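TL;DR need structure tokens for one chain.
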Amino acid sequence: MSLARFPWFRLLPLAALALAGTALSAFALPRVVPDEIDPVSLLPFTNTVDGAGVATAVQGDPFAARGVTMPDFTAAVTRIMSETFATRFVPAAGHGAGPKPFVALAFNPAAGLLPEALCNGRPVATEAARRPIVVRAATCIDGRAQSAATGYLDQAAGPADPGFTSLVQGLTQRLVNL
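>> reply
TL;DR here they are.
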């Protein structure tokens, strides 16, 4: 008796391909991991910035080797964040800090960076070309992290890449809630 006569046997290679495709695509999708600090309400951020927008400090540019300048990269990140909540996120002066709340993101930071280090207003060491892209993010008030998350993305062609957009959206949603 030949196994080829059974219709289910013909479906096995297709099922194996479908499972392999699903497993491989999981590596390309962004992943956001929350820290022990829960998300905070966006309300304190919008109430204290006098309508100017939520100050956002962005450090590190994973696309610098592809010709994306830091100002263009920061503008792309704050645009994606603004579209996520229909709230205006704007580039912070310097690296943030100060009495007003702000959001801090470090792309490809040195290993072991703690959320508090994002909130102290000092620059952090980053490695622009490292892959996968790793981003540490925190909401900061009075120099202290109020919420934090880490995101990972294997590859992205640039700030307009759908995977990168999804990564920044996921981080924004994890850091703050409405």
